[in-house]
Amino acid sequence: MSAESDLIARLCCPGRGVPTETLTAVITLAVEIAREGREGRRVGTLFAIGDCDAVRQVSRPLILDPLSEHPAGLRHISSNDVRETIKELAQLDGGFVVEEDGTVCHGARYFDTRSAGVSLPLGLGSRHMAAASVTRDTKAVAVVVSESAVVRLFHNGAMVNEITPELWLLRRHGLLKDEVEDRTVVEQAGGIAVAASQGGSGERG
Ligand SMILES: Nc1ncnc2c1ncn2[C@@H]1O[C@H](COP(=O)(O)OP(=O)(O)OP(=O)(O)O)[C@@H](O)[C@H]1O
Questions:
Q1: Where is the DAC domain (predicted)?
Q2: Which residues contact residue 165 at a Cβ distance below 8 angstroms, ignoring those fewer than 6 apart?
Q3: Which residue, judged by its Cα, is nearest atom 29 of ligand 1?
């Protein structure tokens, strides 16, 4: 099992309720947004996945919601139409809320943010702080696309992985050799540690 699929499996533990397929689909979409941008510009956005009732309590719409009124059956993340719609909407301020089953329920959502009790590397801005905050206040897992074209995963109020889109795609297509170095964040009891690890065989806390 690779370092990333190992981490995804742990983030998708039964207590959290986010299935592996949903988290993998969101990360893959996030990687596409990071790589493609939109109309020649870099795009960043945020996905909060799971525990949607609690996430709604700590967030609010920034505009009339572009997604929520459509039938749930038309809003699944596996649909090409939905993925292209999300890529378009990702240009707006705010982020998306995704149900455990992969139904995208809200877009352009602002997440209430408090910095107390979150763990964030210096240099990251308010979008990442919002992701850390929503995962501290709920059981959601958050995926951030940075305008710097990096994808970061958060849970329990902390960043747990930093994904380089090209490495993710190479690994998914089986083209990444094990010795290629990757930057992996390793969960430890009560916190996290950042480690430079060998792809597919990272150290474990
Ligand atoms: N609390 C929030 N909830 C949802 N979206 C937010 C929130 N705070 C900021 N954002 C979004 O993040 C955008 C970028 O903000 P900022 O540059 O401070 O974040 P950042 O963490 O540095 O992200 P990036 O790496 O993409 O620049 C804002 O324009 C806004 O769309």
A1: 4-165
A2: 31, 32, 34, 35, 149, 150, 151
A3: 93
- Tokens coding 121: 């590397």
Range of the domain at 99: 3-115+123-165
> Looking at residue 98, which CATH number applies to its domain?
3.40.1700.10
Categorize the per-residue pLDDT at 84 as very low, low, confident or very high, splitting at 50, 70 and 90: very high
pLDDT confidence of residue 140? 96
- 62 occurs within a structural domain: yes
Question: Between 188 and 84, whose confidence is greater?
Answer: 84
Nearest alpha carbon, ligand 1 atom 9: 127
Pocket of ligand 1 (CB under 6 A): 44, 46, 93-95, 110-111, 113, 124-128, 130, 146-148
What CA–CA distance (Å, rounded) separates 185 from 205? Answer: 10
125 CA → ligand 1 middle, Å: 6
- Is 180 in contact with 199 (CB distance < 8 Å)? yes
pLDDT tens sequence across 23-81: 999 999 999 999 999 999 999 999 999 999 999 999 999 999 999 889 999 999 999 99
